[in-house]
Amino acid sequence: MPDQDLLSYIKEESKRGIDKQTLNDNLIAKGWQQAQIDEAFINLQNSNTAPPPPQIEKEANYLPGFRGLLSEAWQIYKQRWKTLVSINLIPFLFLIPLLVLFILYFFISKSLLNPSSPNIILTIVFLIVIAFCAVGFFLLSLWSPVAFIFAIKERSRQIGFKSSYGKSRGKVIPYIVLSFIIGFFVVFGFILLFSPGIVFMVWFNFALFALIYENSGVIGSLKKSRKYVKGKFFDVFYRVLAIGLFIQIVGAVILSVPLLNLFSLIINYLILAPLSTIYSVILYEKLKDLDQKPLSNPISRVFTAVILFAFILAALCAIIFAGVIGYNLFKGNGKNKPLSSLTRQQQTNVIQISPKPGNISAQSQTQGPKTNMTALANDTTRRNDILQILNALGAYAGDHQGNFPPNMPQVNGSPLEISSSGANICSALVPKYLAYLPQDPSINNGTGIKDCNTTFDTGYKISMDLSGRITVYAPLAQNGTISDSR
User: Fold this and answer.
1) 304 assigned to some structural domain
2) pTM value?
3) Strand partners, 437
4) Is the same domain home to 42 and 70?
């Protein structure tokens, strides 16, 4: 056993930086034997190389919970946000010129179908460029999610958006096919019995990632996704449901905050949606590493039951809510059709109540409702007639470089009757723009004018102001004059 004073001396001198040979010479000079010195050095060397105390290792089959996955996803987003945002914004390089060209097209070109238009060649060029931009935007919108997943996969190599797009090129078509198949299974499952939709959604949630990570083909990716979920269905379902609820809640909060809601689409597209995708990719990577091994931290049965109950309750509420809305929207079909949807003859004959001959009391009871409903039906017909005339005049002007038919009233003049002796626009509009020229319901039962060479009076009036705005009036309306302008 080495002398403790000798060991202490060697330790202190070694801390001061004295090398072993110098220490050896000094100790010999002080009278220590060489054997004692060697034994002390060997003892100190063995104590320094002793294995460290055992540490508690993380459980091998541990699957992070929602908070752990979200935290890791956020760290990846912060490190790679420039590349990920760039990938999502690339399709908009085609959308911005597409919107600009649409605006220019409506300002510059009048009609593609009119060969006399002086802008026909320019219109065709615009449409070709617009079609090119639309196709480019559509294709890149399908490509960008593939490139996004590839950028997450290769995050350790720090590849940029160009490499992400380039290396993911061959996966676009399989990705689209696989997305269609998954969508079909999930939608069909929800329609069938609802619960199969949930099962398919969880089973195939990672198939798109397996396609890109493992190059396993369409069918192989579906099998791998189901394989990774096997034995962990509710653990995966809880984590998938949690991120979905989180994104929805954050999105709702953003919409409820003044000013911030103006940027809700940008925040959802560039932050929340990418974060959700990264979260799902990390969950896939963890499940892939486990590869069917049982979890060391499965969720409890009570927690599973609570999740299922809450999900089913929310789904039932959504179904009931949709049913109530649908019932309120469609309950008016059939007997309770609105007057505007009825034919002219039906509108005129709404609620025709005929009292019995000689029954004075019955007549006095039904006369008021009959008169009111007939007036309402006639005024509805007048409004429809006014809209038909205005629409026909607009179509006529579109085909004649903005010019209206002859015999129109003077600008800022008094309204003229639409008749054979007044504003005679019949031959200009019938039959090309109107099957017949509408006539007030109080004149000839609103039959309408088909022969423009006869003497007629529609019962309607028309005027035009300095800006070219046309107003059509129905002075015979029973509840005050009806008019509309274009």
Assistant:
1) no
2) 0.53
3) 449
4) no
